[in-house]
Amino acid sequence: MKLRLLFILILTTQLIYSQSEKQYISLAVGPSFPLNDFAHKNLNDSTSGWAKTGVAFEFTYAYRFTNNIGFQGKITYSSNAFDNLAYDDTLTEAYSRNPENPDTSFSSESSRNWSSGGILVGPYLRFPLSETLSWDITASIGGFGVYSPTLLINGAIDNGEELKEYYRQSGKGYAFAYSFGTGFKYKLANYYVLLFVDYFESKVKINNVAGWDWNSVPYNESIKQDVSYLSVTLGLGYYF
Fold first, then answer.
1. What is the mean pLDDT of residues 149-154?
2. For residue 168, which of 20, 114, 144, 151 is within the disulfide window of CB 3.0 to 4.6 Å?
3. Contacts of 81 (CB under 8 A, 6+ apart)
4. Which pLDDT value is given to residue 16?
5. Which domain holds residue 105?
6. pLDDT digits (tens, 9 = 90+) for 169-193
């Protein structure tokens, strides 16, 4: 009887030990750097996003099957402001008859940023560098929801004439998204300190972008936007 109890105790201990440190949850935050069309600032390119550097949040659950291979699920969010100053300067230069002495000026306001986020899942590779430090490589796919910024533009001519307002409401769209990244985890008691760099991309069609033009004529349209950004996040994880 005692041998049986001892065997059960040893077996239970081994099972618990074998499963330890295979799971972790983490929360990380850091800057979000827009890339490609999302960051472009070109009036003649309808795919230009005019996005500025923003902030990214990531919540992750990960489970490791072996010493080097695991699977993770990630909830991610990024907020990037519309670059109103660059937009104003570009409009002024484009519509003034003499760019060196502008006769038309524009000012724009945005009450809502570019907002993108979603749920992604995929594998990751883990390479232990020491007892406390490991290097991870991740890849994941999922879905993104994207909200476009609101935009209110006012214009004025140097003769005192005021142009009518141009207004664009925020629209939303959903699309497939993918991500890949790399980073380090440093073990500290039952916690990880994490530093990761991740690339996200989603080509989304944003519907119901409504408003009115310079002639006060209402419109409702769809736009296509390539949302891509690089996040550099620092966070804390708990492993169990």
1. 93
2. 151
3. 51, 52, 54, 110, 113, 114, 149
4. 42
5. 22-239
6. 999 999 999 999 999 999 999 999 9
Instruction: Give a yes or no: residue 1 inside a domain.
Output: no
Q: What is the DSSP string of the chain?
A: -HHHHHHHHHHHHHHHHHHTTSEEEEEEEEEEEE-HHHH---TT-TT---BPPEEEEEEEEEEESSSSEEEEEEEEEEEE-B-HHHHHHHHHHHH-S-TTS-SEEEEEE-SS-EEEEEEEEEEEEEEESSSSEEEEEEEEEEEEEEEPPPEEEEEEETTSPBPPPEEE---EEEEEEEEEEEEEEEEETTEEEEEEEEEEEEEEEEEEEEEE-TTS-EEEEEEEEEEEEEEEEEEEEEE-
Residue at 103 is within a domain: yes
Instruction: Give the total number of structural domains in the chain.
Output: 1
Q: What is the CATH number of the domain that holds 171?
A: 2.40.160.20
Quick: pLDDT tens for 51-107: 999 999 999 999 999 999 999 999 999 999 999 999 998 888 877 766 666 677 888
Structural domain includes residue 17: no
- More confident call, 215 vs 131: 131
Tell me whether residue 99 is in a domain: yes
Q: How far is CA 14 from the centre of its chain?
A: 41
